[in-house]
Write a structure and sequence with these properties.
The protein folds into two domains: 227 residues, 3-Layer(aba) Sandwich (Peroxisomal Thiolase, Chain A, domain 1), CATH 3.40.47.10; 152 residues, Thiolase/Chalcone synthase (Peroxisomal Thiolase, Chain A, domain 1, 3-Layer(aba) Sandwich). β4, α5 and β5 form a beta-alpha-beta unit. It has 389 residues and is α+β, with helices and mostly antiparallel strands. It starts with a strand and ends with a strand. It binds acetoacetyl-coenzyme A. Acetoacetyl-coenzyme A binds next to α2 and α7.
Length: 389
């Protein structure tokens, strides 16, 4: 039985800042951000969008009635969750009107949370081939104004439907993974911004990639030429490029050209969104599939990295007619209808927060084009609305 990605969608909020403008405001050369880091625009979440609404908006695009009935497991990978106890999956379950006969849980291991959910979903489908699993990966990356990590912030979510006989990508069974206890990036429960040792995190990303890639080749007897493309977790697009470059010379000139071109296609969406932690690897997969015309049957490699740290290399095979299962127009509309904000406006949005003393705040959702929004908070309970209901 084939198990894999049946449908895949993403959502990014309607506001963004241009990295050239951010560079000027921070007194650095724009090329450092656009070439050295490899980011053009950074998505900004208004207060009316949080990880729950971003995920719900991503899932709304891909689910039909049949999916809603068959989903019996919702897994929400995030590292910017809104509650230490209740899972974000339950809010999305309600907002989407899914069957009550479903499990709903949250997964955490930094940016690896989405991949962990997908791998567990495979096991669930193997035991329950008739059911479907909704995997959500959603994050708002915050390092703080005027920090070196600021340029690698972002906001967005990916929704992945895992099923038997998938429409988009059959996930192959062999994968290689690695855990090491390191402090490259973390966010203590009392902080709303991440702590990071930037250079160390870059080194560890590369070291983890090298180790799982070597192990994967040993385990599978595959070589670089067996891959049409490799998608990377993209904290910023240059990071993935650096990792790809370390293995390119394992292939012929033709293979190097193919992998380099397909890598560029896989970075186009991330260049406009920024880091969305758990969802970044899957945003690069969506970008690749929607920006490049790959043949069915192609093998795609995927490298997932979550600081702290867990890394995994796995792969999938593109399915016949996979294009019919993509949401290309919806995603283009999402990008085309965004509004650019100035650096001053971005800073002001960044500093706005919900009250934490139990007082009531009502939010104006009329300026937010997303169907699902956070409309306020009352008695420490977030209030959500689905404008389509
Ligand atoms: N033109 C072109 N390139 C320029 C340039 C210019 N004018 N000026 C500088 N550059 C280049 C530099 O040469 C450098 O390139 P290389 O990395 O290829 O050498 C690049 O721009 C970045 O410059 P710096 O190293 O000086 O940048 P920095 O110290 O200000 O910060 C960062 C970079 C460490 C990534 C920082 O943004 C950060 O800490 N980000 C958050 C952590 C992160 O994303 N880590 C990634 C791995 S961890 C992970 O993957 C998990 C996760 O999602 C967080």
């Amino acid at each position: 039985m084939k198990i894999g990605i049946d449908k895949i969608g993403f959502y990014t909020p309607h506001l963004y800042v241009d990295m050239n403008n951010l560079a000027v405001a921070r007194g650095v050369e724009p090329e450092k951000f656009t070439i050295g880091i490899g980011q053009d625009e950074m998505a900004i979440a208004p207060l009316t969008q949080d990880p729950v609404t971003l995920a719900a908006n991503a899932a709304l695009q891909i689910l039909d009635e049949n999916d809603r009935e068959k989903i019996d497991f919702v897994m929400f990978g995030t590292e910017s969750g809104i509650d230490h106890s209740k899972s974000a999956a339950i809010y999305v379950h309600e907002l989407l009107g899914l069957s009550p006969h479903a499990r709903s849980i949250e997964m955490k291991q930094a940016c690896y949370g989405g991949t962990a959910a997908i791998q567990l979903a495979k096991g669930h489908i193997a035991l329950n081939p008739e059911s479907k699993v909704l995997v959500l990966a959603s994050d708002i990356a915050r390092y703080g104004l005027q920090t070196s990590g600021e340029v690698t912030q972002g906001a967005g979510a990916v929704a992945v439907l895992i099923s038997a006989e998938p429409g988009v990508l059959e996930l192959e069974n062999i994968s290689t993974f690695l855990t090491k206890d390191i402090m490259d990036f973390w966010r203590p429960t009392y902080s709303d911004v991440a702590f990071v040792d930037g250079k160390f995190s870059n080194e560890q990303y590369m070291a983890f990639f090298s180790e799982v890639w070597e192990e994967y080749k040993k385990k599978t007897d595959l070589t670089i030429s067996d891959f049409e493309a490799i998608c990377y977790h993209l904290p910023y697009t240059k990071m993935g490029l650096k990792a790809l470059r370390t293995i390119l010379d394992e292939g012929s000139e033709e293979v190097q050209k193919r992998l380099s071109e397909n890598f560029q296609a896989s970075t186009l969406y991330s260049r406009k969104v920024g880091n969305i932690y758990t969802a970044s690897l899957y945003l690069s997969l969506i970008s690749l599939l929607e920006e490049q015309d790959l043949e069915a049957g192609s093998r795609i490699g995927l490298f997932s990295y979550g600081s702290g740290a867990v890394g995994e290399f796995f792969s999938g095979i593109l399915q016949p007619n996979y294009r019919e299962f993509l949401s290309v127009d919806t995603h283009k509309d999402n990008f085309n209808s965004r509004t650019e904000v100035t650096v001053t406006e971005y800073e002001s949005i960044f500093q706005k927060t919900l009250p934490i003393d139990g007082s009531t705040m009502e939010l104006d959702t009329s300026q937010d084009p997303a169907p699902i929004c956070l409309s306020g908070i009352k008695d420490h309970e977030r209030q959500y609305i689905n404008k389509h209901k």
